[in-house]
Design goal:
This protein is α/β, with parallel strands linked by helices and about 350 residues long. It folds into two domains: about 1-160, Endonuclease Chain A (Endonuclease, Chain A, 2-Layer Sandwich), CATH 3.30.870; about 165-345, 2-Layer Sandwich (Endonuclease, Chain A), CATH 3.30.870. Helix content is about 35%, strand content about 25%. The chain has helices at about 1-5, 25-35, 55-65, 110, 130-145, 180-190, 210-220, 235-245, 245-250, 285-290, 300-315, 325, 330-340; strands spanning about 10-15, 40-45, 65-70, 85, 90-95, 100, 120, 125, 170-175, 195-200, 225-230, 255-260, 260-265, 270, 275-280, 290-300, 320. The strands form three sheets. Strands 4, 9, 10, 11, 12, 14, 15, 16 and 17 form a nine-stranded mixed sheet that branches. The chain has a six-stranded mixed sheet with strand order 3-2-1-5-6-8, sandwiched between helices. Strands 7-13 form a two-stranded parallel ribbon. Helix 6 runs parallel beside helix 7 (about 210-220) and helix 8 (about 235-245) crosses helix 13. The longest helix has 16 residues, at about 130-145. The two termini are about 30 Å apart. The relative contact order is 0.13.
Length: about 350
């Protein structure tokens, strides 16, 4: 990504849910300001609520020629319901010909890992006309953030995006429009699968629709697997809330594995050696219903094979939960899971 930014000649559009000004963030920041000073159109979009503590650094980027905007500042003095909806997308668009998206934000831990283990994540890099699909997604959010009262001129893909590879599809979801397209696509993928659907997600708090589709698929013989991290990055509550749902999934035949080397933040799906999905969307209500998300769906055997290899590499470092042992876990653990599940939609 740094190499592509440094080679940019016309435009660099950067959007992250979190962008921390640590050594890695400042390294990318230097590349962005250097491009801006050389006349490249550099735009930087961040989630205003999550990143409010780093506004001082974003002001520095603006002073160096980068166009900067914060998505959905909290209304003061009284917050509104829409303030609860955050932008969880991660997009980098370069010269309309290269684009990145996936699970990673910008911070050193995404590269170097945590004290207790590595950080495992997945991004997709797109070259060619299909990169315009992600560029237009960025421009939609940019216009929403910079002209919130003006009808959005980028709500629909540009005409050039029609030249995109037919095997690549970009799906977005938006709680402001009650749009749950990514969740509905996941349900459809499970319902249409013939052999397998494998997931990686840092959280496993599925909505009723997704859990139902997983269980239906597993019961009819589809190999449904989900890889999870052993610990959370938002405290213990999210992991306990995730464990609350293990029993129902295991009873239906869903296999749940624990990835041991570190924190598995990857958000991928691979199905039937044909379809691969790289997304910013977790398996939880916040991603499905309360955040703006983006998913790249590729209907291509070669890409699905590469994503399957990613999953299998992570699986070799994981252990699947034994359903019998799970159902004999201590009562105090069940109680903790139930309590955390009550507040799971807020995690």
């Amino acid at each position: 990504m740094l190499a592509d930014v440094n080679a940019a000649r016309q435009r660099v559009y950067v959007q992250f849910f979190k962008y921390e000004p640590d050594a890695l963030g400042q390294q990318l920041g230097v590349a962005l300001t250097r491009r801006a000073k050389e006349g490249v159109d550099v735009r930087f979009l961040y989630d205003d609520f999550v990143c409010h503590r780093w506004r001082w650094y974003y002001r520095h980027l603006r002073s160096q020629g980068v166009s900067v905007a914060g998505y959905a500042p909290i209304h003061k003095p009284l917050p509104r319901l829409c303030d609860y909806y955050r932008n969880h997308r991660k997009i980098v668009s370069i010269d309309d010909t290269i684009a990145y998206t996936g699970g990673m934000n910008i911070a050193e831990r995404y590269h170097h890992g945590l004290e207790w283990g590595c950080w495992c994540d997945t991004m997709i890099r797109i070259e060619g006309p299909s990169a315009l699909l992600l560029r237009d997604c960025f421009l939609h959010d940019w216009d929403t953030s910079t002209h919130p009262r003006r009808p959005n001129e980028r709500a629909h893909p540009s005409q050039n995006a029609t030249k995109a590879d037919a095997s690549i599809q970009v799906i977005t979801s938006d709680p402001n429009l009650h749009d749950r397209s990514i969740m509905l696509h996941t349900v459809a993928l499970l319902d249409e699968a013939d052999r397998y659907v494998w997931f990686e997600s840092p959280y496993f708090i599925p909505t009723r629709e997704v859990m139902g589709a997983m269980c239906r698929a597993a019961r009819r013989g589809v190999d449904v697997r989900v890889l999870q991290p052993p610990r959370g990055d938002r405290g213990e509550a999210t992991q306990w809330a995730s464990k609350h749902h293990y029993g129902q999934a295991l009873d239906a035949g869903v296999k749940i594995g624990v990835y041991h080397p570190g924190f598995l933040h990857s958000k991928i799906i691979v199905s039937d050696d044909r379809i691969g999905v790289v997304s910013s969307c977790n398996i939880d209500p916040r991603s499905y219903c309360l955040c703006q998300e983006v998913a790249t769906v590729v209907d291509d055997a070669a890409f699905a094979a590469s994503l399957r290899d990613v999953f299998l590499t992570d699986e070799r470092q994981s252990t699947y939960i034994d359903p019998d042992q799970w159902h004999h876990r201590p009562i105090w653990q069940r109680l903790k899971e139930n309590i955390c599940n009550i507040i799971s939609s807020q995690l």
